[in-house]
Amino acid sequence: MAPLADIISSIKDPEATHFTLLDDIKPYSISSLILLEFQLQALIENIYTMAQPGPRKGDPTLDIWIGERSLYIFIVFLTVLGFVILIPTAYIRWRHKRLREPEVIFIVLAYILFLANELVLLGLQTRVYRLSYVALRMKPPYREILNDRHDVIILAYASTYLFYSALWCIKISLLLFFRPFLRALPDQLRWWNVTITYLFIAFVFGFLATLLSCGGPKQLNHVAPGQKYCQGRVDSITRNISLFGWFAADVSTDLLVMILPLRLLYGMHISYAQKIRAGALFSVGMLCMITAIIRLVQIGSKTGITNPNVQWLSLWGTVEATTAMVVGCLPTFRLIFRSPPGEGQPNYSIKMPWNNESSSNPSTPSGTRQEAPSSS
Question: Positions of the region Disordered (predicted)?
Fold first, then answer.
């Protein structure tokens, strides 16, 4: 039985005919044959590349845009930052006896999903870099290359769902934070219900778009060795629907969450300085919108929107997820400016013009003011 190295050498040298190829290949295991196939494919690509004039064009999905160690440190640093911002949030709520508020559940759930996503990304990057090194011919093919490619696809799907689930938990926590302020405006509560319904519909749309992209889960087990995954015309369309669909859902829901309390802010009988402070509190979702837009722009400028690089997706996904965690915790810091528990706290009233359609009590005379929780 001839060694694999001799088989490959014989193919490189057509005059070497000291064995019969099929007879010598038969005794090898499937993994060895797969390794041989990748080596033959690399050899053919090398021959083709040498025949082409000019420098070889790299595939942006395989290029290394950031060093493996740098990306690893970056992900770990932002993961720790998310935990660090959670510690004072928990302490402030405990000190002011606000740990039982409903938004706390979603903040904690968001961090669990955020942490799970970062751990998945760390496992994903190890495999992505190994595959990139082989694709760029910086390292030779290895036996587990097919398993790594399959794991990368599975982990990428898992990361997408964990990432957006964490973002949606933060959005829900902000909506639950706004709800007590809207009790004085019953018609605004109806808009609150519309917003929470839209959040649910948008998430289901994004979930299905990702699940059905690139041929769906059944396509994972039908990718032959040497065949690229999710590169067909239909696959590209479904992949782009998933990417742009999530982006549109993310930005539109952030916008709705910020617009919702504007009428409340307009009706508050407080100073302009207090209105500015309350407006800044209500518009923290703008940070998530900005990072979502930067993420899409950066992916497009570096690797192309239609065929993004996993490393670049991981980097900017981590930035957006960490920003969302900070945004979700920011409303808690309003409690720093409030009196300690047990002392009197001022409530700001809201102008409620008499309106039979918008008032929960039509008999309330014009000019009556209803109380709303303080925003400071």
Answer: 344-376
Instruction: Pinpoint the residues of the chain covered by CATH 1.20.1070.
Output: 68-332
- pLDDT tens, residue by residue, 230-289: 667 777 788 888 888 898 999 999 888 888 877 677 766 777 777 777 777 667 777 777
The mean pLDDT of 141-157, rounded to a whole number, is 84
CB atoms within 10 A of CB 80: 12
State how far the Cα of 159 lies from the Cα of 314, in Å rounded to an integer.
9
CATH 3.40.50 is held by the domain 68-332? no
Neighbouring CB atoms inside 10 A of 25's CB total 16
Q: What is the mean pLDDT of residues 124-147?
A: 83
Angular region, 313: left φ>0, alpha ψ -120 to 50, beta rest: alpha
Which pair of tokens denotes residue 301? Answer: 């400028």
Residues 6 or more apart whose CB falls under 8 angstroms from that of 350 comprise 184, 185, 264, 267, 268, 269, 369, 370, 371, 372
> Per-residue pLDDT tens for 164-183?
999 999 999 989 988 887 77
Distance (Å) of CA 93 to CA 88, 100, 156, 233, 334: 8, 9, 35, 51, 10
Specify the amino acid at residue 177: F
Q: Which of 236, 160, 252 is nearest to 199 (CA)?
A: 252
DSSP string covering 127-182, please? HHHHHHHHHTTSS---TTHHHHHHHHHHHHHHHHHHHHHHHHHHHHHHHHHHGGGG
